[in-house]
Amino acid sequence: MRRRPRAVRKYVIRAVVFQEGEWLCAQCLEYNLVAQAKSLKQLSRALQRLIVAHVAVRLEADDLDPVGAFPRGILLEQLQRATRLVDRVDRNRRRLLAGGDEESSLSWRGPL
Predict the structure, then answer these.
(1) 108 phi and psi angles, rounded to 5 deg
(2) In a 3-state reduction of DSSP, which class is residue 17?
């Protein structure tokens, strides 16, 4: 009797890359995983090894969804919140540039 091949799951893991001194860092947006290295090639390899090691440990523990077990990061939530704030500021700026009443748009309407 032949075994049916397992369906391959695909996951997208997004990361922000930034520099701290001589080190390049990759911080995953959705998950609380960070890797560091001296070059982009080494950083990519370090992040891949970190993810593979985490998945391997979860599979060893018979976890059915090894990627879902990653510790959740808050970076994506913070990025989304900051993006909404920038969008709101940008909309107000465009309204002012389009000829809105600058004085009334910028005046304080709350209690003093």
Answers:
(1) -85, 125
(2) strand
Question: Other CB atoms closer than 10 Å to residue 35's CB: what's the count?
Answer: 21
The alpha-helical segments, DSSP class H, found in 1-112 are 40-60, 75-97, 102-106
By the 10 Å C-beta count (0-12 exposed, 13-18 middle, 19+ buried), 47 is classed as buried
Q: Which residues contact 58 (CB under 8 A, 6 or more apart)?
A: 66, 67, 69
- Residue 15's CB: how many other CB atoms inside 10 A? 21
Q: Per residue of the chain (112 residues), give pLDDT as tens.
A: 566 676 777 778 888 999 999 999 998 887 888 999 999 999 999 999 998 888 788 778 776 665 665 556 666 677 777 778 778 888 877 887 777 554 444 444 444 4
- Order of strands, edge to edge, in the sheet holding 15-20? 15-20, 23-28, 34-37
Compute how many other C-beta atoms are within 10 angstroms of the C-beta atom of residue 42.
13
**pTM of the complete model:** 0.55
d(CA 110, CA 112): 6
Q: What is the DSSP letter of 73?
A: P
